C-alpha cells in the first residue's frame, strides 16, 4: 500500500452535498477534505491550497479544483495533491461516467508552473526556445524507451524550437535498478554530460539489479561514463531526486512517461512532433 493510500480514502462514486449557495474557497474545500477524503485518524489536515481551477467541455457546469493538501503524518509534513469536482452544491473527488466507466479524474493534470522550467532540469534545446517540453521518465520503463529518445532527439536537433526539461521518476517496485541509474543520470547531467542521460535508454542491464558496483560497472562499459559510488550517494543527489518526486506529486503524476507540451499534459505523448521541421 502506498503512502498516499494510507493517508486517504476516497469513494469512487460518493458525492457530498455542500450548500447550494456556498462560495467555493479554501475553507469550504478544507472542510470537505477533513470530512470525506482523509480518513486516517493519524493524519492531521493543516490546510489546503487551490492551485488551479479547470473546466471540461464534457462536464458542463462542473468546476474542477486542483489542490494541494497540507498534511501531518507521524510528525512529518506532507503536501499531497487532491482533485475536487464541484457543481450545484455537490462535491466529489471522483466523477465517473457510469456507461463508459471513464473516471474524469484521470483526464486532467495541473498546468506546469513556470518554476519547473529551470536550468537544473533543462536537458536539451535552448531555454528561450519557442516551445517547452517537460517529461517525467524512468530509463528502464519500456514505454519511456519507446517515446523519450524521440523527444530527446527532437530537442537536440531543433534547439530553437524545443526546450526539453527532464524530471526523474524511477519506478522502483518494477525496476529497482532505476534508483541507481537515475542518480548516475543526475550527476552526469549536472556535469554537462547530457549524452549519458540519452544513452541510458539503450542500457542493457537486469532491471532488478541492486548492486551499486555492478550497475556503475555496466554504465561505464556501455556508455564510457565513470563515476564513484560516493558521488551518486551524496546528499545533494538525494535531495535532487526527492525534489523530483515531490514535483511528480505536485503534478499528479503516477506513471511514466508523462509528457507536457507548453505547460499542458500531452496524453498521446506526440504533440512535440508538430514543432519539428521536415
Residues in helices, as a percent range: 25-40%
CATH superfamily of the largest domain: Glutaredoxin
Biggest sheet layout: 5 strands, antiparallel
Number of domains: 2
Instruction: Give me the CATH architecture of the largest domain, please.
Output: 3-Layer(aba) Sandwich
Mean pLDDT: 92
**Mass-distribution shape:** globular
Strand-and-helix sequence, N→C?
HEHEEEEEEHEHHHHHEE
Contiguous runs where pLDDT drops below 50 for at least 5 residues? 10-14
The separation of the N and C termini measures: 47 Å
Helix count from the secondary structure assignment: 8
CATH topology of the largest domain: Glutaredoxin
Strand proportion, as a percent range, falls in 15-25%
User: What structural class should be given to the helix and strand makeup?
Assistant: alpha+beta
Strand arrangement across the biggest beta sheet: 1-5-4-3-2
| Alpha carbon gyration radius | 21 Å
Overall CATH class of the largest domain? Alpha Beta
